Amino acid sequence: MPARLPTVRLRVPRPGFPWSAPEVPRGFERPVVERRLGADYDSSWARRPLARHVRLLLIEGPIRLGVRALAAPERTGQDRLDDLSGPLIFAANHHSHLDAPLLLTSIPEPWRHRMVVAAAADYFFANRVGAAASALAIGAIPIERTKVERRSADRAAALLADGWSLLIFPEGGRSADGWGRGHRGGAAYLGLRCAVPVVPVHVEGTGRIFGKGAKRPSPGTSRVTFGRALRPHEGESASRFAVRIEAAVAALADEAATDWWSARRRAAEGRSPALTGPQGASWRRAWALGDRRGPQTRAAPRTAWPRF
Question: pTM to 2 decimals?
Fold first, then answer.
């Protein structure tokens, strides 16, 4: 019987420091490696020239085509921004993941391509792939929505001071039943702190197309309505300013559902229907919501290629 040959194991040398983590001597605890995700994610690379050009191509190419195919948006009120300049805070209601792409293709120049989107740190920045994709494709920055966190506010304020505009959803999350949620104070606080006008925006229809809990989108129609910019009054607190912003978005929702004159009259009398809908059982809220699908089915108008 032939003798068995000894097994030879080849040991491939591992690359040393700095190509791999340094070895820890015996007797010392291995340091904990911090994961730079969530609110700690550094998205500054996504605002450098190369990333901005890539984002421009994405927004004006596949994102715009996808929004047009899925949502067939109608856009009104853009003329209300004609006398504005400099950075702005766009505060919109929130029903769907489609809201951010729809608004990024609806907000006019010169703000569209110098825009960052306040995105939930615990959702969009939970892993490296999702964080990088969100920062590159829509210019997302991480914002804590589960607790008050100074870093998020400081990050957004620094970008506004640097000339970037901000898209924020003050409701703090998507609607679960088609009705809105009460506004939090982030947009109002930043408007006060940075002396930047807040533009109320109402988005209608995206909840039916790709609402919370939906597995796949269902093509439909949508409408984006821009309101007139709001500025804080002398001595106004952030909480009172937040109430005014929410009321302005509610008036835009009324305008989209009825007509401009009737909505303006109800807003002047303080009778605009609330974004949060009636209180009561879920069936009553669903019945009150109804089907507000508009007859608008035409495609969005073609736009000229933007200057970067």
Answer: 0.79
What pLDDT, in 10s, does the model give residues 148-169?
578 888 999 999 999 999 999 9
Residue 172 backbone dihedrals phi, psi, to 5 degrees: 85, 0
pLDDT digits (tens, 9 = 90+) for 75-99: 999 999 999 999 999 999 988 889 9
Residue 244 placed within a domain: yes
Cβ pair 197, 89 in contact under 8 A: yes
| CATH assignment at residue 90 | 3.40.1130
What is the amino acid identity at position 112?
A: R
| DSSP state, residue 211 | B
Element (H, E) at 166: strand 165-168
Among 46, 202, 52, smallest CA distance to 124 is for 46
Using CA atoms, how far apart are residues 13 and 87, in angstroms rounded to an integer? 54
Domain that holds residue 122: 38-209+218-289
* Structure tokens given for 197: 């006008």
Q: Which residue bears the tokens 């495609």?
A: 299
In a domain, 79, yes or no: yes
Q: Do the domain assignments include residue 242?
A: yes
In a domain, 301, yes or no: no
CB atoms within 10 A of CB 237: 14
Helix 49-58 vs helix 128-138: angle between axes, to the nearest 10 degrees? 80
Number of independent structural domains in the chain: 1
HSE, CB side, 13 Å, CA atoms: give it for residue 187.
34
**Under 8 Å between Cβ of 192 and 235:** no
Indicate the residue type of 264: R
Residues in the chain: 308
Tokens describing residue 113: 């391509």
